[in-house]
Design a protein that fits this description.
Blueprint (H helix, E strand, L loop, with lengths): L2 H17 L3 H14 L4 H13 L3 H14 L4 H13 L3 H14 L4 H13 L3 H14 L4 H24 L1
Amino acid sequence: MTKKDKVKKLLIEAERCLILGENPNAEIISRQIVELNPNNSEAYYFLGEALCKQGKFQESVDTLKKANKLLPNHPRIVHLLGWAIFMNGDVELGRKLIKQALENIPDDIQILCDLAVLETRQGNGDLAKEYVLRAFEIDAIHPLVQEVFKTVVHFDKERTRLTRKIN
């Protein structure tokens, strides 16, 4: 098997692991790919995703920056980089990058839902509703849209209840 074929096979396996939620395995496989081919942006992306899903946000940011350097401004990379940066504590830069990705893929449910979650966490309920309703218009029965919609509505009701209680 050639090195190129091995990398291709490992990329498929890493992606399969990510889809199945086997994030530690995806991390191991992605690291193997990076060793074989240090200029493979997809391997860095998969590695960054696996790290992010394991809560290793700073390492994910560092890895996704490498992917972005190899494939500048790719919306998927920018989106995940923005999310990892947000989760690592830099809300403004994370928001900026996720919005940049949304400009390139305006009907992406994952990006819209991530922005809704970000804005909910920041107490911006109206903006969160705006994003989740856009996702809802695209695919109202998508499980992610359903989950984020319920979350946004729940926190909006809680904010309203607490505001009334305070006043």
